[in-house]
Amino acid sequence: MSLKIGVIGTGAIGQEHIARLNGKLAGSSVVAVNDINSENAQAVAARLCPSAKVHATGQDLVNSPDVDAVLVTSWGPSHEEFVLAAIEAGKPVFCEKPLATTAEACLRIVEAEIASGRHLVQVGFMRRYDAGYRLLKEVVTSGQIGDPLMLHCAHRNPSVPAHYVGDMGITDTFIHEIDVLRWLVDDDYVSAQVIQGKRSRHALNGLDDPYIVVLKTKSGVVIDTEIFVNCQFGYDIQCQIVGEDGTANLPEPATVPMRKNQMAGQSIMMDWKLRFIDSYDVELQEWVQATLQGKVTGPTAWDGYFAAVTSDACVEAKRTGQIVAINTDARPDFYR
Ligand code: NAI
Ligand code: ISE
Predict the structure, then answer these.
(1) pLDDT digit string (tens) for 28-65?
(2) Contact assessment for residue 21 and residue 30, using Cβ atoms and an 8 Å cutoff
(3) What's the CA-to-centroid distance between 192 and ligand 1, angstroms?
(4) How many angstroms does the Cα of residue 97 sit away from the middle of ligand 1?
(5) In the structure, which protein residues have their CB atom closer than 6 angstroms to any atom of ligand 2?
(6) Less crowded by CB within 10 Å, the N or C end of the chain?
(7) Ligand nearest 157 Cα, by number?
(8) Which structural domain range is residue 91 located in?
């Protein structure tokens, strides 16, 4: 059986996901696409999924009887509308991060999903599908290093485009750590603090870069993460867990150590798309399989909501220099 998917948003990641779902992965085909830039949608369909219908609006696509499930890869501010439309139509929906751009909008999605009585929504936090993070999670769960006490992490990009402004270091970039670190330690956050670093001369458009975010969890785990999106040298994701009985590090991607030009070393990736390319495959393959069985096994709408509440608290902490409390209601039974 094949899952017939409609994709809203045929930009960068939309195209990559279409290529995966329409050839590389098993059990799925892309039967419909839409983009506010209809020329782009036509061109992408012609290149990647020639038999797909190009719909005039995302709503039309969601309501098409040919579409079994929806993939939302449009810009963040449009996510809420399409995810709510899919819930209303009773169709499973995979939404790229962020689930929505405000915590209130995420909560509306959570409430709509609960009211529908069906688990339909998955959020595109792909780090949970990365082989290295999965190995690290196994180490934590097996108790080999005892209880995690502290985490030291870094999210470094070589550079960012001109449209990357304001608090995107948190809302676009750190949001991945917000989700994956909470999943790793299996504990919710209670507070956030941001410590500004000395501003790099490479930071454009008044961007604050770098800075450190400190999150504290309910059980007292302290997590510091350096966010440095103009570090120049590479796309570098680090995570070290300090446990009661030892430490555990996120494995580096496999590269061949070389000795050359009076130096010994290994290359570092420059592009985040390459660093997590396998995890996108695993993420969408597991989503297709679970969806065909009527299940959601990945990050839920509640995880998307919790990430948004945490992200808001980090933005406020950055603005005020204060330690900001992270408050949500208890996780609804629906998501247990
Ligand atoms: P993009 O700008 O390359 O593509 C977005 C596309 O959505 C554009 O073609 C745009 O015309 C279309 N669009 C915008 N509003 C729309 C609407 N109302 N209806 C239909 N189409 C609409 O952006 P990109 O990089 O592909 O990002 C898309 C989403 O994916 C964002 O939410 C982003 O945060 C997320 N993303 C996730 C990544 C991950 O690692 N999980 C990596 C990159 C992006
Ligand atoms: C980008 O938007 C992503 O989602 C990537 O996964 C992330 O690593 C990068 O820093 C973001 O800018």
Answers:
(1) 999 999 999 999 999 999 999 999 999 999 999 999 99
(2) yes
(3) 28
(4) 9
(5) 157, 172-173, 176, 272
(6) N
(7) 2
(8) 3-124
